[in-house]
Design goal:
Layout (H helix, E strand, L loop, with lengths): L1 H8 L7 E5 L5 H10 L3 E6 L2 H9 L4 E4 L5 H7 L3 E6 L4 H9 L1 E9 L14 H6 L3 E4 L5 H12 L7 E5 L3 H9 L6 E5 L1
Parallel strand pairs: 1-2, 1-4, 2-3, 4-5, 5-6, 7-8
Helix pairs in contact: 1-2
Length: 188
């Protein structure tokens, strides 16, 4: 529901270009929701495995930010109308902002760990390009009902790995070190 709400508050319309920064538990769903509203989707991540997942889920373009400057790569495509920041570093938020074209919307979703510093936004560029910065958190009961309906219709896929409860410490370590494709689910 979190990324569904992010796509909703960005007012994405068909044909717009949406860049999803961070393909994981939230990002793999953001790719699908952006596609559902008719957007051209750019997936940005640091690992090739997550970018392959994004391609499988319908991303039109992928950018490996570990080897390519995502701002330049997205500019080469014409810039993004919307950038959804799901990676938990201020650098990723700043890259998402810089990848926007005139009139673009930055949707801030991820919450970096405490002490990771502020996000710096250039005032002149924000004003002169008419950029909007939008905070988006979770959603409403109606959003949840819509997400469940889309999933029941087979329009989205949740990618999840099962783990036993006694593997909780390893699971947390895997999530923190980006060694999971998307979501982890504990079996009881």
């Amino acid at each position: 529901m979190t990324t569904y709400k992010a796509i909703k508050v960005a007012d994405v319309v068909p044909g717009e270009r949406v860049a999803v920064f961070g393909i994981g538990g939230l990002g793999h769903l953001a790719v699908q929701y952006a596609r559902l509203v008719g957007a051209e989707v750019i997936a940005v991540d640091l690992t090739e495995e997550k970018l392959e997942l994004a391609r499988e889920l319908g991303a039109d373009h992928t950018v490996n930010a570990a080897t390519t400057d995502p701002v330049q790569a997205i500019a080469d495509l014409g810039g993004a109308d919307v950038a959804v920041a799901l990676a938990v570093t201020p650098k990723a938020f700043e890259q998402a902002f810089a990848a926007l074209r005139r009139g673009g919307r930055l949707v801030c979703v991820a919450l970096p760990p405490e002490g990771d510093g502020p996000m710096h936004l250039p005032i002149f560029e924000t004003v002169l390009k008419g950029i909007s910065v939008i905070g988006s958190i979770v959603g409403t009961r109606q959003d949840l009902a819509e997400v469940f309906r889309l999933h029941a219709l087979g329009r989205t896929r949740v990618i999840a790995e099962s783990r036993r409860l006694d593997q909780v410490n390893e699971a947390i370590d895997d999530v923190l070190n980006a060694r999971t494709a998307a979501r982890l689910v504990f079996d009881f």
